[in-house]
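From the shared-data thread, chain only:
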Amino acid sequence: FCTDRLNTVFHVGDERFVTPNGARMDEVIRAVRACPSGALSYALGSTEIRDGVDQARPPAIEVSKDGPYRVTGGIALKDGQGNDEARNTGVSREHYSLCRCGHSQNKPFCSGMHWYVNFHDPQVDAEHEPTLFEWVGGLPALLRMTHLFYDKYIPQEPLLLPLFVGMSPDHPERVAAWLGEVFGGPKNYSQQYGGYPRMLSQHIGKHITEAHRERWVSLLCQAADEAGVPTDPEFRSAFMSYIEWGSRLAVENSTPDAHPPLHMPMPRWDWGTAGPPGSRISALAPVQEEEKTAALPSANEQVRFSLHIKPLFRQMDRQSMKWAFDLWSYEDVTKHAPGILQRLQNGSMPCDGAWPHEKIEAFQRWIDTGMQE
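Structure, as tokens:
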């Protein structure tokens, strides 16, 4: 994060690692503060501004995706004898990263080897449907986005700046907590900040206009892109659905004659009509080899779901329809059999090509003979 996202300043592998005037000062400071290893700092003249790099925040340990443990909040690090762990001169003691892949060249600290050894977290069960909160990258990803939005984009926008001049210093954290809870994460906003009534109080009487809303949405999308928020169609569909809904609600609640209900529950957002990632076959996915052909029933054989019908549906067929029903579930297929047959006959299912006549005939026979399990 500290180098790749500001490569006009930091040049990994070059003899001159830093170009101090390669970006605005606030961008350099933001990148230095975001360095998870604690190895970066900055100075004005000859005076290091370590207090401007280290932050006052509660102790926390984040398990980063396919990467190290990220430690923040000044947690003491001791060796096996209870002594302070030896560190390089000048590094932060407020935040640092610890090796999780086992291949660091600077143990116990992370040296970036997880990139080179192709370290990955354990595979999640294929049946698990992630929440929007999980998919976006959890609270760290939302915090990157909200800090970019309120620290970088809002101060440059004269239309929106008057709405936020009096915001609290922890406003980015509050908004990230709100979004995290809405997207299926922990209920931090409700427990720490007051839930829906608190958010409503921030909008009442603010006279937010449609011009404000449009610009707010546009800049938030830019912050999301810069923060590395997922760009897949499924996530952005759900993300923008909430942002549009929530921002329009804020405009409505902020009008002078508005009387919004005061004790509504927290909104909860899911994947919606588009479904979660993996529910469709991407046009960019590699062409898969044909799966083993399912055995069709003989002319005099009783057609059964478990032996003849279920094997006709591939894993990708099942995944693409799970938003509506489960093609490997006897109960679901029995319930929706007429509709499934109609789609098989008109060629709209499966999504990558129509079934041959023999398979459709087997499904028709199964229906006509009582849909045996």
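Strands lie at 43-44, 47-48, 60-63, 69-72, 96-98.
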